[in-house]
Amino acid sequence: MDVVSALESALSAAGDVRGKGEAALSAFSAADHGAFVRILASVATGNGEMSVRKLAAVLLRRSVKNEDDSDVLEAMLRGCAHVDDGQLQGMFGQVLATVVMRGNDIDSKVDRLLCFAQEAYSMNRLNAVCICIKCLKVASLNARELVVVNGLVSRITPLLLLGLKSEMLANRSAFCMRKFLEAVFYLSPETVVPPSWWDGLSDAVWSIKDARVKSEIIGALRVYYRLKGGMLFEIAVKTLRGSVDEAAVLTGYDSDDGSPKGTKPLQANSIECIRESFPGNADIIFELMNLCVQACVFYSDLGDLFVEDPNEFVALHEDDSAPNFPRQSGPGFIDFLVDTCPLGQVIDAMIRIKQTLRSEQDVESGLWLAGNLWISIAQDEDRYQRFLSTWIIELVGCSLVAPLKARVLWSIWACWSDLLAVPEVCHVVVTCLKDESQVVALYACRAFGRIISDARMGKSELFGLVPTLHGIMKNASLETVHIAVEAICALFGSIEASGLDFRESGFPSIDLVRTAVVLWGKGADNDPLVCESLLNMLYRLTSLGCDSSWVLEATSSQVGISLISSLFQLPQLSRSIRPYVEQILQNIVQSLQSNAHDPLLWKCFAACVVFVGSCDFLVIGPHLSSAITWANAAGEDDREAVDYITKMICTLLQHARHNSAAECVKNVGSLDGFSHLVSTRDDGNLFHEISMCSLFLGQTEWLRLDNQTATRLVSLLDEHMSKIVAGCVMLLLKGYPALRNDQRVQLIKGCFQAQGLDEIWDFGVDDDPTDEVDMFKSSQEKEQYEGIALQLADTLRIY
């Protein structure tokens, strides 16, 4: 097997074949390493299978030693002229970087590389030039090695300029050139003025047609300016001015690395450069702000501004990875001007810009920047804020398309303050609530929630908005309906704060409830935001003094029962709903007659019972008894529903204990079928709860259990049971004298083991177990543990 065959075998999918190939390659390397390296270089630069060539290049980079550097360098340079594959070019660059940037002859090897690149360029072998640039890019990642090369900056600059002169090379090496240029700037001596080739570089950058490449180079220039100083401002302004004059159409994303294409990245980098190198000249503020407005123009369909995520009022392509990211750089630059220049000059520039807005896209961009400027101005700048509010509101009267109205509403929502509580703003929002565009109406709902407390609206105006907001709520999707519901809640809050009687509005509150039930059936209960807003709306509906009988109609359907059971979680509703609880229970029971196996109904039933208990109005009657009776008769297929009933009983008993309701506990124990349910359910939680209730009552007769059931506690007593179970066992032993002695002893021993009190068992009946209690107690549990231990000891002495 030769080296080529071994490489092919090493790429095999079969494990045994791949193993043999790897073993053969190791053997070749050990036998004659120099020959092995030369063969790998020959294979990598040859015309064989691409996968084999790539593997050879990878192995070559890992295997080459210092004594092989010269041979490998020459072999790679000879063979790189015809490498078209970008990935293989990168591998060649890594090999070259490995052999060039080490040893005592780095200077001579760098000179050889640069000389070769210039010769290749003169012969139009651009693949070879590209590989050389990638080599230096890889080498530049370790600047400490490059520092030892005397005059490296001036020596590798011609190679960079070669790359910039070739559009083909630029398209394929933009990122490499940026990293390379950053390395050049980083290695420049701290005291030097901008190098002699700076003007030539500026012209070369400007001549590049590909916007993405130009953007990469501008980004590298920013690095240079921060480190050394230079003419970055002039280059950036010239670049931005030229880019906005072109057709700045978005062209999507690059298929290779996902970065945006088109002029937008270039504009964003230029704006950042202007901000970082701004000389403070007030005479050019207007031009710079106007350039920012033009750079922030959204050239796609304006409808895309808010269709992506209507929950966010800036739901347009404005994240850092999106093609419109000048829309971040522009507001950032405006903020910078507000902080560094006289505010009056900035506002005057915005006034002038308003007169230049022509197209809908221009208006939207102006609104975008004006809204951000509004945020940036300090609260004490009343005059400027009022100007901007008028600036924005005036645009609403220009027959704006829906997206621009939404942008205005976003500005109102984002920038609202008491200083802007003017009737004109309120009028804009209320008008947009009735807009035929559902999306604009939703934006208006969000803004409405912000202004309503300062709106100073009259009774008829407030009442008149209820059907409007309800209509928006009915037409909204499940993803956006909470915006409308929150606006309704804000309206209810304003009506209540104004001391108005909502019933005088004439709006049937049941309509809101019916819509809420419909939304609940569509899955609103699975969305925490929608769920919370709906429950808050229903709560506010009851707080307005409306007839709460709507809960009865809501519980006429299974979906409504689920909604109302969620309302039981709100203790504020107890007073208004309490009179209807018994009827709600009857509606649930009626639904259970036709859907007896539905666990959701049992869950709602349990929630209702617990809620009733929290009102100190325990409706046990036939409802709870019928649930227990059904559970006793249920089969294995109904286990989930029975589990809900068991959980309900546990919750109800726990609530009764916490509220010292001893009669409630006894009443539950006296229900028909309860003893049978306890005796047939191997439920640790249930036994834990009846144990706690037994200790709470100080007796076990309330359970009405037979001896057989008491004996079954042995099988349920394990390390997972509560420590307090031991006390219940003691009570059971006293309450059921028919237990055999061996059963009693087994129960007692199980108690010791479950409590981790084996030492007490070892003491024997004549010792006082409380002497060892300190080993196990906490300060809060001392009395409890001592009582258990004494009862255990007392029982031991009996036997």
Characterization of the model:
One of its GO terms (biological process) is protein import into nucleus. The longest helix has 21 residues, at 167-187. The radius of gyration is 40 Å and the shape is flat. Among the domains are: 231-299 and 306-378, no CATH class; 707-798, no CATH class. The model is unreliable at 167-173, 189-194, 247-260, 307-324, 615-619, 717-724, 759-782 and 795-799 (pLDDT under 50). The protein is built from 43 helices and no strands.
Query: Using only CA atoms, what is the Rg?
Result: 40 Å
Q: How many H/I helical runs?
A: 43
β-strand percent reads: under 5%
How many beta strands in the DSSP annotation? 0
Please report the distance between the alpha carbons of the first and last residues.
87 Å
Largest sheet: none
List the uncertain runs. 167-173, 189-194, 247-260, 307-324, 615-619, 717-724, 759-782, 795-799
Helix content: 55-70%
Would you tell me the overall average pLDDT? 70
Defining traits:
single chain, 799 residues, mainly alpha, 0% strand, disordered C terminus
In short:
With 799 residues, the chain is mainly α.
